[in-house]
């Protein structure tokens, strides 16, 4: 264990042997595999689902031994265990690997890193560079997701060399940096994320954006402005989902917004515990993003929650289910993009 890494974040080494893991993120058209460059994430987003996954819950001994972590969930954001040398091991693994999983939605893509931020700092970035190089050298499609694409620009050469095999994206839930920093306490500001993606796009590297999750404080005009800004990086796809008020971390998210003085956000989030309020907000946001995306000519892809479909009208259920069944419009990994119009929304004309 070492404590030399700044801001009180405890760091260590992750001795995990697994290199490439199959992933269920194909349901969201993201990937069939994931590679994680570290365990833990210094951004410490309050709504993050990762600390409640087995990856953290089942490894208390490793967390204690490597970074003196007593409670992996409560201390989320305050520890990182790095997987130095992962790129070299992955390279050898890919030399030997004979079969590859390619689902209709996941397209065999490898996601880097969906349980941490692969460019959260320089040490993670160094591992990520080698991972991207190993994957693209083996002509495996690689999806890099980071809230810090500006730092990723240090590896622009590796992304350019990766050519059609790599895309980089960022979660940009809202453009209001005060609200975002209230619940994504240590992550770079949304403007910073967008600037990084624009730079990648300017250099011919394909980009994507995840508006995940949009906030209940955003009205239709805010979402229009948000999508107009996102259009600046010419993303190949804009994924969108509203926030989901389920799960233990939701309480922490509301409290974090309140602690940061963002009472309007805290109140609006709090109200989502009422199911009717959540359904109304979630369906409005999904409709508006679809409608505005069409107006702006953006390749929007909605991620409606399975639970939401249970609580809407029959017409709305058909509309939302069509989105769940529909292929993503992203031109990446030899995907057959949809040729039919987007699903008809029961309230707004398409
Ligand atoms: S950047 Fe991603 S992995 Fe890291 S805390 Fe935020 S949501 Fe979780």
Provide key terms for this protein.
binds iron/sulfur cluster; alpha/beta; 350 residues; 8-stranded mixed sheet; 14 helices
How would you characterize the overall build of this protein?
This protein has helices at residues 54-57, 60-67, 86-96, 122-137, 149-152, 156-162, 177-183, 190-202, 220-230, 249-259, 263-271, 275-296, 306-310, 314-325; strands spanning 10-13, 21-22, 33-35, 38-39, 79-82, 110-112, 142-145, 166-171, 206-214, 238-242, 300-302. The model is unreliable at 1-5 (pLDDT under 50). It is an alpha/beta fold and 350 residues long. The chain has an eight-stranded mixed beta sheet. Helix 4 links the parallel strand 6 and strand 7 (142-145). The chain has 14 helices and eleven strands. Iron/sulfur cluster binds next to loops.
Largest sheet: 8 strands, mixed
Helix content: 40-55%
Classify the oligomer.
single chain
- Distance N terminus to C terminus? 56 Å
Mean pLDDT: 95
How much strand? 5-15%
Q: Count all strands and give the number.
A: 11
Ligand species: iron/sulfur cluster
Q: What pattern of helices and strands is seen along the backbone?
A: EEEEHHEHEHEHHEHHEHEHHHEHH
Strand order of the largest sheet: 2-3-6-7-8-9-10-11
Structural class: alpha/beta
Radius of gyration: 20 Å
**Uncertain stretches of 5 or more adjacent residues:** 1-5
Morphology = globular
The total count of helices amounts to 14
């Amino acid at each position: 264990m070492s404590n030399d890494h700044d801001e009180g974040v405890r760091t260590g080494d992750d001795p995990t042997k697994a290199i490439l893991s199959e992933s269920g993120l194909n349901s969201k058209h993201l990937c069939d595999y994931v590679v994680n460059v570290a365990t833990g994430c210094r951004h410490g987003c309050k709504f993050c689902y990762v600390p409640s996954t087995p990856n953290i819950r089942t490894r208390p001994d490793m967390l204690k031994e490597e970074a003196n972590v007593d409670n992996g969930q409560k201390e989320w954001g305050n520890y990182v265990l790095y997987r130095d040398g992962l790129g070299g091991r992955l390279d050898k693994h890919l030399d030997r690997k004979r079969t590859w999983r390619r689902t209709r939605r996941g397209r065999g893509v490898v996601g880097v890193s969906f349980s941490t931020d692969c460019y959260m700092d320089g040490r993670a970035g160094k591992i990520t560079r080698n991972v991207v190089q190993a994957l693209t050298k083996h002509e495996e499609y690689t999806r890099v997701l980071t809230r810090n694409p500006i730092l990723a620009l240090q590896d622009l050469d590796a992304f350019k060399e990766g050519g059609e095999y790599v895309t980089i994206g960022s979660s940009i839930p809202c453009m209001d940096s005060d609200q975002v920093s209230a619940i994504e306490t240590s992550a770079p500001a949304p403007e910073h994320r967008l600037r990084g993606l624009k730079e990648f796009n300017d250099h011919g590297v394909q980009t994507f954006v995840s508006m995940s999750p949009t906030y209940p404080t955003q009205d239709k005009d805010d979402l229009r402005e948000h999508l107009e800004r996102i259009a600046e990086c010419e993303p190949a796809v804009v994924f969108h989902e509203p926030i989901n008020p389920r799960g233990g971390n939701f309480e922490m998210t509301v409290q974090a917004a309140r602690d940061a003085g963002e009472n309007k956000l805290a109140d609006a989030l709090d109200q989502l515990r009422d199911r009717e309020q959540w359904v109304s907000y979630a369906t409005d946001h999904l409709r508006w993003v679809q409608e505005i995306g069409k107006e702006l000519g953006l390749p929007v892809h909605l991620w409606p929650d399975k639970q939401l479909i249970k609580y809407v009208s029959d017409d709305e259920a058909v509309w939302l289910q069509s989105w769940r069944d529909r292929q993503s419009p992203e031109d990446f990994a030899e995907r057959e993009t949809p040729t039919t119009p987007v699903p008809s929304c029961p309230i707004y004309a398409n």
